[in-house]
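Anyone opening a protein record will find just a pair of labelled lines. With that in mind, the following record should read easily:
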Amino acid sequence: MPEMNKNGSQGTPPPSTEILHEGPAKLGPRFQEILLLIGQLNYTWTNTESLLIYLIAGLARVDKETAIVIFLTLNTTRARIELVERLSKLAKNPTDRRREILSVTEQLTRQAKLRNKYSHCIYSFDETGTSGSTQLMRIFDAKDDIRYGKIEELDDAEVRKITNCINDIKNTNTTIWRLVREYSYPH
């Protein structure tokens, strides 16, 4: 019979956090605030991106299960958004519907930039957890050299950007649900 770990689940216990990072065991409020915001940003984004399934179902005139397979087969956000945009541009869709759906995909594309930034960076905090920064894990090709690891402060302005983006994504979510119901798309 498999052993139970200290969390009450079977299998290998999770690694100790002391092994994963150096520094104090408890970091300050800014660290906690940033982790909470990034988690909320990713949750809100993922929940909203999944609503593209219903737009795909309605625009492609397929059932929800088929739309899920299509959605999961496309393994990037950009590909999913492009599919919805292309389906909406088909002549069979009325101009006003096309305009509304393209507005949604435009919003998602804009919101994805900040979400991607915070999903593909390394976070650094001082020993108190009150001052933080991000280091982007992206290469920038210039004419004669490359640059990488752009460092940006996680200041109040950045926290406001993240908070505003979360609210914008929530609004986009509401808009998608309205469109799905208004156009009687499978859901």
